Amino acid sequence: MRTPVLVSIAAAAVLAACSGGGAGTGASTGKDAGTGGGGSGGAPSGTGGAPACTEDCAKLPHVANDAACDAGACAFTCMPGWAHCTSRPGDGCETDLSQPATCGACGNACTPTSPICLPTAGGYACSTACFNGTPTLCAGMCTDTTTDPKNCGGCGNACPAPSTCTGGKCT
Description:
The chain has about 170 residues and is an all-beta fold. The chain has strands spanning about 5, 15, 70, 75, 80-85, 95, 115-120, 125, 135-140, 140-145, 165, 170.
């Protein structure tokens, strides 16, 4: 069995073997992501002679609702903004594509000349500056400190739960 294969970046389709193995080869196993003989919700199964997955595919991080166990392999789609970038099948869609270290794709780090990862139509891209709507740079991310509960009124000023941020003040 092959280990995870990243098929595309936006809403990445992934076929991930549910047992150990080495790095992926980039080749598909030929199974359609999101289909297969798993139980409801991607639960492990071993019926019909098919091997069971060693974990509940639907409970992997940031996988879409289409996760299923198909002949011992988890088949799933990543939620928008997330990707599967490791060689560990059980990680699911562990990589946040909005971060400067993985801006828009696995391993796509923003450079010192374009250090900010910003949302674009259909993904994320590195940029040189923050723009209207999110004008303040906080820890490598552009934000609006008048509404961001993690940076309310200034970078790093988090509002306690269940507070929100209004006008730069926790309410």
